[in-house]
Give the backbone structure.
Amino acid sequence: MTGGGGTGTQTDTEVTTHTQLIPPYHLILLDDDDHSYEYVIEMLIAVFGMSKERAYLHACEVDSTQRTIVITTSREHAELKQEQVHAYGPDHRIPRCAGSMTAIVEPA
């Protein structure tokens, strides 16, 4: 550094930056017999903004394997989406349906 009088010495400061990745979490939709394909598709479109085709593929997967990973994201975002799934309400097409589908959050 020059100018302004002073001692003419310069101090170098080393700055170390550490990047810490946020661990990913899965939001997993679980199968049951109280929700129709139509319900699952409508809910995925409404909550996640999915295309009808992608939502249908998730409906098929949850029906055949008992679960489907809907999103992988931060824990906070996965928990927010879980709350939205749980708040979506029952399937009006199935009289015995008492509430929303179950979604769980697990480390990826």
